[in-house]
Amino acid sequence: MQTIHLHSSTIFFGEPEELVFDGSVLIITEKNVASLYLDLISQKIKAPQVFSLVLQGGEENKNFQTLEQILHFAFACKLDRKSTMIALGGGIISDLVGLASGLYMRGIDFYNIPTTLLAQVDASVGGKCGVNSPFGKNLIGLFHHPSQVLISPLFLKSLPPREFNAGMAEVIKMAVCFSPELFEKLFDVSYVQNHLLEIIFQSISIKANIVSQDERESHLRSALNYGHTFGHAIEKEQNFQNFLHGEAVSIGMVMANTLASKIAGFQESSQVLSLLKLHNLPTSYKIQNPDVFFQSLFLDKKTQNQQIKFILPLAIGSFDFFYPPVEEIKKILNEFAK
Ligand code: GLY
User: Fold this and answer.
1) Are 99 and 144 contacting, i.e. CB atoms less than 8 angstroms apart?
2) Which CATH entry fits the domain spanning 2-157: 3.40.50.1970, 3.30.70.120, 1.25.40.10, 3.30.428.10?
3) What is the mean pLDDT of residues 289-299?
4) How does pLDDT run across 12-35, given as a tens digit for each residue?
5) Whole-angstrom Cα distance, residue 286 to residue 293?
6) Average pLDDT of the residues of the chain
7) Does ligand 1 come within 6 angstroms of the Cβ of 122?
């Protein structure tokens, strides 16, 4: 089985195997995943006690209320500091469980078993976890690394195409900023389907390389946020409904590329657009209120001293960080408001 080590996490690639624990285990998942995989994973766990909590899925439920629900359930199960929480699901579940396990009794272990492509290629590794607030996306959270991440393509067999495509947006993000070779490969859809584990492994390898240099996102790690500054503002404008995270990131990359072609000399916007369309991702969006949208960009975690930081591609495989003048940002927003 292939593995990658990152910080205190070991990331395993392959079929799920038996998992042995000294303390009790709480599996946290959501309705759809529970009906498909909760029994399968429960059977693989050898622990003194195994509990499970099935949540309502959806980005709109990644909030304080659900966090409290997890913590209260954990107290009711009498989890202690030797217990482990297991996140079985997509990025929403891993973000919630990472945060809950990081807060419970000042922090207990957690495992990630990501069941969506988006979580397998990005969200399940690197230790970022959090919840949304009415002020914006992922604004409340922690860095808390899972001790193990178990990545198996088995789970992707049941993934609806829309969810699969949303995961491809994060793969495309990695390729545009870091890997012309991966970018080329992604134009071959049958290659992607037949070499999925390799694509996931490459995405995680790119991410692990970046996170190992800048775990707390003092600078370099924010490159993994290409497309996310605009994408998060779209999610907020939509009240965390209507778009999957990867879909909002896809549109966010198109917006970022428009800015990059104006201020960073980026000439490959149309190739990126073609690749996003090839993977059936949304690439257009009508901003409802450019002024409110503009204000929400400031509550991005990359903003410093009221300057909004953008990661913009210079060419496929290279990028830089920009703090564009306000007028340039507003021009882009007005273009997308028409
Ligand atoms: N998803 C971006 C990061 O983990 O930094």
Assistant:
1) yes
2) 3.40.50.1970
3) 94
4) 999 989 999 999 999 999 999 999
5) 11
6) 96
7) yes
pLDDT in tens, 160-212: 999 999 999 999 999 999 999 999 999 999 999 999 999 999 999 999 999 99
CB neighbour list of residue 144: distance below 8 Å, 6 or more residues apart:
98, 99, 101, 102, 107, 110, 127, 129
Q: Which atom of ligand 1 is nearest to the CA of 222?
A: 5
Would you say residue 306 has pLDDT above 90? no
The structure's pTM equals 0.95
Joined together, the tokens standing for residue 87 give 């996140």
Return the residue whose CA atom lies nearest to atom 2 of ligand 1: 224
Residue that is written with structure tokens 């000294």 in the block: 22
**Domain limits, the chain:** 2-157, 160-335
- Predicted confidence band at 304 (pLDDT cuts at 50, 70, 90)? confident
For residue 224, how far is its CA from the centre of ligand 1 (angstroms)? Answer: 5
Q: Does domain 160-335 correspond to CATH entry 1.20.1090.10?
A: yes
Q: How far is the CA of 225 from the centre of ligand 1 (A)?
A: 6
| Beta-strand relationship, 310-315 and 318-322 | antiparallel
Q: Which residue has the tokens 């990005």?
A: 122
Please state the rounded mean pLDDT for residues 301-324: 94
What is the rounded distance in angstroms from the CA atom of residue 249 to the CA atom of residue 11? 25
Q: Using only C-alpha atoms, what is the Rg of the chain?
A: 19
* Residue 128 near ligand 1, beta carbon < 6 Å: yes
